[in-house]
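User: For documentation purposes, I need each entry recorded in a consistent format: the amino acid sequence on its own, followed directly by the corresponding structure tokens. There are two entries in this batch. Please keep commentary to a minimum and don't merge the entries.

Assistant: Recorded as requested. Entry 1:
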Amino acid sequence: MSIKDLEPKIVWNYFHDITQIPRPSKKEEKIIAYLLDFAKEHNLEAKKDKAGNVLITKPATPGKENAQTVILQSHVDMVCEKNSDVTHDFDNDPIETIIEGDWVRANGTTLGADNGIGVAAQLAVLASTDIAHGKIEALFTVDEETGLTGANSLQPDFFTGNILLNLDTEEEGEIYISCAGGKGTKAYFKYKEKDAPKKYFWFKIQVKGLRGGHSGSDIEKGLGNANKILNRFLHSLMRKKYGMVLSEIGGGNLHNAIAREAYAVVGVKEKYKEDIRVKLNVFLANLQNEYKKTDPNLEILLESVQMPSKIINKGVAEKLLQAIYACPHGVIGMSFDIDGLVETSTNLASVKMLENHTIEVGTSQRSSVESRKNDIVNMVSTVFDLAGAKKIVNNEGYPGWEPNPNSEILKLAKSEYKKLYNKNAKVKAIHAGLECGLFLEKYPHLDMISIGPDMTDVHSPDEKVKISSVKKWWDYFVQILENIPEQVVE
């Protein structure tokens, strides 16, 4: 069975099309071309701005000319993560989808339902002939996943509507009205290469099998961070007797994903070869006990390797490992205003060896309180400063989206959900970042909500979307569009 056979067919057919189009962040040219061709094929007005954002406009259906204009919005890029044993070129290869019961997933890669299912729903509305609606402005933004640069680059006159439906959340039956703001912190360590010592036991250690996930919506789940787990073991080898030296280290990839895999190439004095194996077995047993609920497939593999030619000078290696150990990761504080909402968090996202003898440690911070976002940024920066990082860089970040208790579209959305399903939708805030905060900076009049179907493990190769929830979400989405009130004439 193909996903094109699923209901509602119009949504799943467009989602299938989207999975066949490579669309990594900052490389969205193919999906942009697809959108512009779609508009031409359906005789719809379309425009593209300098950043690559696309707006496709569809006139109101007969009898709905006086309804308020609605902006439908999703981002076209996707997080590109795969399991290490999977061969996949995200720049050129389509996503292979698999149906398992009530879920759709990909074959060892991210699925791209974040936010491809939202894009598919927008296209379905634009192509439909049986939905009664006012004027539609379908906004497709670029590069949401690596910096929200598409939303940040929007000009104040790109669209005209006052109501915006963001389609980028992951729980059917929940209406989101607020999100956290975020910022990124990167630290750079400069090292000198030294000759690798002789009479050493050399091994590669790998942390694998972790679930990973979204550094916003999954941060409170207690998931393992491969960088922190690997570093915890390496830090334990820093005792003088082992003479530990570090040749390579790396882990994680994206600022908004919890690191699933990490590795290092390490040497210890030959006489401690068996000690290290025993130490690792004990360490692994402890970790598997700690993560038995959240990451039951955790693996730590050790294999002998050939002696490398060079190592990272010991002083920098030790400072790097100490900094990673000390750097906070996870939930920093919970909200006092909304039960169960993470207020502030930080993610130790990646460790990468770059050119010119440089190691980059990437982290990201989030908070729904601006002052606390800045506080955790300063905390993380101070850790790396004390460890002697050569350079620490904080990006501009993005603002949070504050709730609007007087939102008219929220009132409508709550009412229509109750009519459709005879139960109340949950009104919530999300710790993840949405583009809505940036929209509000440039269009302060906007009245916004965010809705989506059920998705799990986004930003990881375990990402999947629930088939039955897509049908419920689509029916609800259409219900909202068909009941948008008329414009108020003053």
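Entry 2:
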Amino acid sequence: MRLALIHISQETNDFNPVPTTLADYVAYGIYEGQEVIDRLTGRGQVGGHLAAAGGAETVPIIRAWACAGGRITREAFDFFQEKIRAGLQAAGRIDGLALQLHGACAAEGIDDVEGAQAALCRELLGPNVPIVLGLDHHANITRQMVDACTAIVGHRAQPHDQFDTGQVGTTVLMRIINEKLRPTTAWRKIPLVTHQEQFLTAQGPMKRWFDRAREMESDPRVLQASNYPMQPWLDVAEGGWATIVVTDNDQALADTLADELAALAWSMREAFMQRTAIAVDDAVMAAERAPKGVVVLSDTGDTVFGGAAGDSNLILESMLRQGTTSPALIPLISPTAAARLTEAGEGAEVTLPLGGDATPFFTPLSVTGTVRKVADGRLDLTADNQADSQGEIDMGRTVIFEVGPATLLISTLRGVAGNLPSVWRAFGIEPTEYKIAVVKTASNFQFFAPITSQVIRVDTRGPGQSDVMTLPWRRLPRPIWPLDPI
């Protein structure tokens, strides 16, 4: 058995105007052919596929990953279309395709990148070769995706277990081939777009929704039941939540279960909108008064893992204005500041504007501080289990800059911002020596969990803000709740 493997992933935030380019993919590594297996065995979604494939031969085409951000450029879209075309044409006989995409990627002028990629694979492989599409559970499901693929599976947890998704997808693919199954799919769009504060699957309404999908999979007729609370900053014509049920040749059962999952999500829509984030000043003072650290302050509006640009200065401004004294870690993505501080050199005292480089949500803040370290931002996270499938990343020229109680990690590229303790340690900073750590993520707190005393979500504005009502929506289908009174 020969299984082709393609993994291309980026999550688009339409409220971040900075485009995602091929250079952003290069910063995390674009691998082709045998290099995909050599670098990713045992790690991430690719590693999950390889573990499930067993004795089957894997024909790796390409692996490319970029951090969430603005729409990908047309150049990047065309590049990957050509890599898919050339790779599958050169692959020879293929019994099945493990297609691993994100599901919420948009390009310049193209809302549905993954639909176009899946359609190209179907065109090249013909109608009879099974294609199993593995998606992030924040994907936006489209008609084109469903039509092009034999079956669709998704992440079963948030925080995501990418290895698990790779295993599930390839297990389903091999069953289709070996057992000659006849997958039937039912999918339902749900007119919902909610903030991210209830996205964790270990608790609340999301746990109830995802647990029900797992219960459905205990029926041997059900190959996969997957839920998709679309990431809430994708402004596209087919936007909205979705659910998918795949059965073995039982359309009536698939329809019944998909209806149930959609109805369950809709019945909990008010619960999905419950907020836990608190005002910036209140959050900062709560961390300041906490009996011990490390207190994680989640900069929800500037969630780099949700596609924001990482240029928010709101928490820093609050600390300086309120006169806090607790030592704090704050990441900031600013190519301009990184260049200026690099030129000044280590030990220099510098006054400069910080924040608001990329997005209109923030106003530059004038600060004075000391340059402590200037470094190359190339990091090897291969040994860091928390990094999952990232391996080597490039954060560009990176500077450690001290401003009052804050130690800032100012990078040229997004990388993973300061969302992993190992990133700070790579630049000589031990996070456990700090009372407060600001993370540029709205829900991926697991990386700091072993050293965290508490997590406080901060109600910051920005491309990833929880206030979905005031975002400048243009393309989202209407009516949709809660933007409209359905």
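Summary note for entry 2:
The CA atoms of residues 199 and 206 lie 6 Å apart.
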